[in-house]
Amino acid sequence: MVGRLVIVDDITERIELEVQLTQADKLSSIGLLAAGVAHEVNTPLAVISSYTQMLAKQLQSDPQKAGVLEKITKQTFRASEIVNNLLNFSRTTGTELTEVSLNKVIADTLALLEHQFKVAHIQVHHEFHEKLPLIQGNAGRLQQVFLNLFLNAKDAMAGGGVLNVATLNGEFVSVRVSDTGSGIAQEHIQRIYDPFFTTKTSPAEGQNRGTGLGLSVTYGIIQEHAGNIRVESRPGEGTTFTLDFPLLSIRKALHV
Fold first, then answer.
1. Which residues pair with 228 in a beta bridge?
2. Do 231 and 175 meet the contact criterion of CB atoms below 8 Å apart?
3. Number of domains present in the structure of the chain
4. Do 125 and 232 fall into the same domain?
5. Dihedral-angle region of residue 179 (phi above 0 means left; psi in -120 to 50 means alpha; beta otherwise)
6. Where are the alpha helices (DSSP H) in 59-179?
7. Where are the beta strands (DSSP E) in the chain?
8. What is the pLDDT of residues 29-44, one digit of tens each?
9. What DSSP letter does each residue of 144-164 carry, written as one string?
10. Its pTM surpasses 0.90
11. Do 184 and 192 contact (CB within 8 A), yes or no?
12. How far apart are CA 174 and CA 4, in angstroms?
């Protein structure tokens, strides 16, 4: 034998793309089902809510019965919220896109949650790139993304902590959201975007039980914006989400 020829091919990027495609196909199929279910459920929920509120007005003098009706009304609103999230999750077209400043969207979202962070003893540190390029997006839908990520971070830091938010300019327009919370178990990482998957089965005081739709909706919105979302987390060491959006010039060139 004269020698050997060894060829090494790094397929890490290809595997990551295959995982993303599999996830997108799975969520697309679930989205079609979710849309049908949501539309069918919305009508009876509206009827139940209306009649319950009518009865509650008539029985205000009976505290016991009024209390039961109030519980029914609250659960109806919770069911309605889940249905609306299903509709948001299944909506993949029809979103109007304009030129958007991610710095402004994030700043506005943090301002909305300022009181909640203060009560939860969470310090917020942000580092915005001064010359961050605009992206093609929908400000309302993107705000929903950051609301989901920030509220999840808050819930993960039950005893207080630090939320770091940074915007970066490079090959993509990127956003990094890091917390010092409880982290995500490795066996759950691959499932966090699945509809109705949640680790908030026993929420702490002041927290709501998760519906498992927040990150699913977030994933769908990122896909609408031709972006990508990545997560790094270890139990007890916090979680970091990184969002990448294509530069405005690239999207225009590709007519995306």
1. 244
2. no
3. 2
4. yes
5. beta
6. 63-90, 102-112, 114-119, 139-156
7. 98-100, 122-127, 135-137, 161-169, 173-179, 228-233, 239-245
8. 666 666 666 667 777 8
9. HHHHHHHHHHHHH-TT-EEEE
10. no
11. yes
12. 43
